[in-house]
Amino acid sequence: QDNSFEQFIINYCNEKLQQIFIELTLKEEQEEYIREGIEWTHIEYFNNAIICDLIENNQTGILAMLDEECLRPGTVTDDTFLEKLNQVCATHQHFESRMSKCSRFLNDTSLPHSCFRIQHYAGKVMYQVEGFVDKNNDLLYRDLSQAMWKANHSLIKALFPEGNPAKINLKRPPTAGSQFKASVATLMKNLQTKNPNYIRCIKPNDKKAAHIFNEALVCHQIRYLGLLENVRVRRAGYAFRQPYEPCLERYKMLCKQTWPHWRGPARAGVEVLFNELGIPEEEFSFGRSKIFIRNPRTLFKLEDLRKQRLEDLATLIEKIYRGWKCRTRFLLMKRCQVVIASWYRRYA
């Protein structure tokens, strides 16, 4: 019920993960159709970049203002931090406090004076400002790091590399918020170099009990997880896409014109292949560098045909090998019979 600094940075990380989910599953997919020249009607979706910017902007972000409060001279309290938020974020559509211009709760006691509210992607969350400054300023003093680095135990020494006298940095250590922000940035950079797969878990009820299905709770989760937009993009788009070269290489045995070798551009070979198989034109589209297949059942059909064709080819290879082996054995026996007969006639 009471959200403080810890929940704030956790929700910030969740926003960043949701942002990369949007980038990879909605934005990037629609941009790929445009790049490939596929006819496409853009599907609107909410991009939470504006919420991430509210938190992490280097000048007007909440974390930046929190660091500024921790560093400035004079009396610094959680109330002065909240006053600064009210000055800088007053007009932001996703920020609310008792003093902000966007707040509809000026006369509502559900939003206390010592709190602010952020409209996250998953819904509104109210944060107690008490403790933000102290928790963000919770630093490990340099002399403590040096003392731990001098320990005889190798594990303890390894946990405090900043205590190494050769690496002493006279700069002020980064705040907890800055460290967390840097860790999140590293995580995002790492994820963007990968091809992640997502598993979305839906909680059927708040009691964690079996055989109870709360429809309102499930619908709420589906909305804030972005599954509705994702399903709309998937249903309007194509379930499978692959460059022409590997597609032709995988399915070329299904057409006599492309098997065993196709002489010409890969796209032309794929066109000949799909025309030969009689796949309806609405089931696929040709992009600049890829073939796009709309429904999974078309892909399943191709895989079934390929599996059957491989079995037929295996049978053909086995038949030819057995014929060659039998013919070789027959010719050998025939030569042996001629030799035996010639020697028999010589001594008969």
From TrEMBL:
Which processes are annotated in GO (biological process)? actin filament organization; actin filament-based movement; endocytosis
The protein's UniProt keywords, in alphabetical order, are: Actin-binding, ATP-binding, Calmodulin-binding, Motor protein, Myosin, Nucleotide-binding, Repeat
Q: Which GO terms describe its molecular function?
A: actin filament binding; ATP binding; calmodulin binding; microfilament motor activity
Where is region (Actin-binding) located?
A: 184-206
Record's superkingdom? Answer: Eukaryota
GO cellular component term of the entry, any: plasma membrane
Instruction: Give every Myosin motor domain span.
Output: 1-307
Which family does the record claim for this protein?
Belongs to the TRAFAC class myosin-kinesin ATPase superfamily. Myosin family.
Question: What protein name applies here?
Answer: MYO1B protein
